[in-house]
Amino acid sequence: MNIWLRGTAPASDEQITAWENKHDLTLPSGYKELVRVHNGGLLKKNHFPVTEPTSYGLTDAEIYSLAGLDGLQLHIPEEQDVDLPGSQVYFHQDGHRYIGLDYQMAEPCVIYVDFETLQTLVVAENFDQFIAGLYFSPFDVDAAPNYPLEKLEQMLAMANVAKTLEILQLLEDRKEKDWYFTQIEALLHSKESPYQQIGVTLLENQIYYFRRKLDAKRVSSILEWLESQHFWPEKVTELRKEWED
Predict the structure, then answer these.
(1) At what angle do helices 233-244 and 193-209 cross, to 10 degrees?
(2) Tell me, what's the pLDDT at 155?
(3) What confidence score (pLDDT) does residue 174 get?
């Protein structure tokens, strides 16, 4: 089950056993197999089929990450308003929408719960069936400004050069500037010049149009690094002058 796009360091058998002992629950073998590779992270596949319409669409719902052991949620704020029978362990959250394991049966099924619409669906009889049913379909790029950061990271990890530029240009005024500059720096440190070029283009837009919102030390550090690399020197010189004026 190679579904990881990228993720954190593997979980050990000792960590898995400790979690199960602490919560007196047995995790599905398929989940344990996955966290032995990455203890949480982004997924290559991002949709799964549903039997009735959800707030995502008529025939499917979305998932873009899978929680590791530390990210599994047994108690969530919404349960104060809607008390589901049995025990649930949620491994994905998107706003008030959750995907998780429902332990009402000996082998937990996988459920999708939307606490805004009070919709609960069994989407797979077990975890392995759920993973096997995942598939990739591109997210709507035009709605990117409204997406959570993890979803954006999944989109960017799957995007080509043109799509990366399109997505990040739509996010230019996103309030999470630290996250945005992390994306710019990743592009600048790419070994492929087209990605480096769009990194410089995005940095230019930030300096010209959003400079009052920027971390001065971080921008200066990026400019110094670009100067040391002698990458696109004419443009970097122009950016340095604009930044210091």
Answers:
(1) 20
(2) 97
(3) 95
**CA dihedral for 24, 25, 29, 34, sign (positive or negative):** negative
CATH of domain 4-133: 3.40.1580.10
Taking the C-alpha atoms of residue 56 and residue 196, their distance in angstroms, rounded to an integer, is 34
- HSE, CB side, 13 Å, CA atoms: give it for residue 108: 23
For the sheet containing 65-66, what is the strand order?
A: 4-7, 41-43, 65-66
From the list 123, 18, 136, the residue with the least C-alpha distance to 69 is 18
Sorted by where each begins, the domain ranges of the chain are: 4-133, 143-244
Q: What are the phi and psi torsion angles at 9 (to 5°)?
A: -60, 155
Q: Residue 158 pLDDT > 70, yes or no?
A: yes
Exposed, middle or buried: residue 62 (CB in 10 Å: 0-12, 13-18, 19+)?
buried
Which residues have a Cβ under 8 Å from the Cβ of 236 and sit 6 or more positions away? 200, 223, 226, 227
Contact present, 203 and 189 (Cβ < 8 Å): no
Quote the DSSP letter at residue 219: H
Residues 94-149: tens digit of each pLDDT: 999 999 999 998 899 999 999 999 999 999 999 999 999 999 999 999 999 999 99
- pTM beyond 0.70: yes
Please state, rounded to an integer, the average pLDDT across all residues of the chain: 95
Local structure of residue 26 (DSSP, 8 states): P
